Amino acid sequence: MPAKGPAGIKKNSQATQEQVQLMVEDIHLRFGGLNALSGVNFVVKKGDIQAIIGPNGAGKTCILNCICRFYHPHQGRIVFEGKDISKVPTHRVAALGIARSFQNIELFRGMTVLGNIKLGHHTHMHSGFISGGIYLGKAKREEMRVRKEIEERIIDLLEIEAIRKQIVGTLPYGLQKRVELARALAMQPKILLLDEPMAGMNLEETEDMARFILDINEEWGVTVVLIEHDMGVVMDISDNVVVLDFGTKIAQGTPREVSKNPHVIEAYLGAEDAARSKLGL
C-alpha cells in the first residue's frame, strides 16, 4: 500500500483560515424522528486527504450528501472556498468544483467507458444549443479539447486505455469503480468526494485505487474527502480523520491520534472489547 509518510501524515494538521477549503459547521439532519446528524463540525484543508470513518449507520454518507446538496440540513451550513453553499441548487454544485463518486456504482451501463467519462465534463461545456446540435465550429473544437483532456490525462492516469471503447456493463466491478472515478475527474474538481471507493475490491484492486487517489491528490492538487472502512487505507493515505458515531463527531485528528482514541476504539469494538483491547487481550 502506498504511504504518505509516518501514519499517513504529510502536513501540519493545524489549519489556518487561508488553508481551509471546506467547512462543515454545526450540521443537523433529521429524517422524521431520527437524528441522522447532530451538530457535526470539521474543516478540510486545501490539498489534504480527509477521511471520514465510523461504524455502519454513523452518518458518513449523509455528510457527503449534505455537501453535494442532495440533502438539505435542518441546521448549520457548508462553506466552500469562503462561500456559504448551503442554499446553492443541487445542479450547480458540480460547477463550483465539487465532484463525487457513489457507494453504489452510478454509471450508464449501456454506454462505453469513454461515453460515461465524457458525461462528467458536461458542466464545463460552453457551446450553444444550435452549434452543439449540428456539431460545427465551437462545439466541434470543444469536443476535441475535452477528448484530448480525457484521453491524455484521465484515461492514462487510471490505466484504462485498453477498455475505453468497451460497454461499461460488461466490465468487472473493480474496473467500473475506476470508470466512475474517471467520470468524477472529468468534472475538473477542486475537491473530490469519494464514498467507499475500495468497497468490494480485492487486495490488488484496493492498492491500485489507493495509488490513484494519491496521484490525484499529490500530482493534480485535488483535495479528497474519503469515506472508507479499510483502516489500512485510511492510515496509509489520509492526512486527517473525522470519526462519526450515531450522527455525532466523536474524534478528529491524524490517523495515529484517532487510532489511539478510546472513544473511537469503543465505537468500533464495543465497550467490553475496547477494555480487553486496552489490556492487550
Compact description:
The protein has 281 residues and is of the alpha/beta class. 37% of the residues lie in helices and 22% in strands.
In words, what does this structure look like?
- The chain has 281 residues and is of the alpha/beta class.
- The protein has two domains: 6-97 and 189-278, 3-Layer(aba) Sandwich (Rossmann fold), CATH 3.40.50.300; 112-186, no CATH class.
- Helix content is 37%, strand content 22%.
- It contains eleven helices and ten strands.
- The protein has helices at 60-67, 93-96, 113-119, 129-134, 138-158, 173-185, 203-220, 231-237, 255-259, 262-269, 271-278; strands at 20-31, 34-45, 49-53, 75-80, 83-84, 98-100, 191-195, 223-227, 240-245, 248-253.
- The chain has a six-stranded mixed sheet, sandwiched between helices. Strands 2-1-4-5 form a four-stranded antiparallel sheet, with helices on one face.
- α7 links the parallel β7 and β8.
- α5 (138-158) packs across α6.
- The model is unreliable at 5-13, 125-133 and 274-281 (pLDDT under 50).
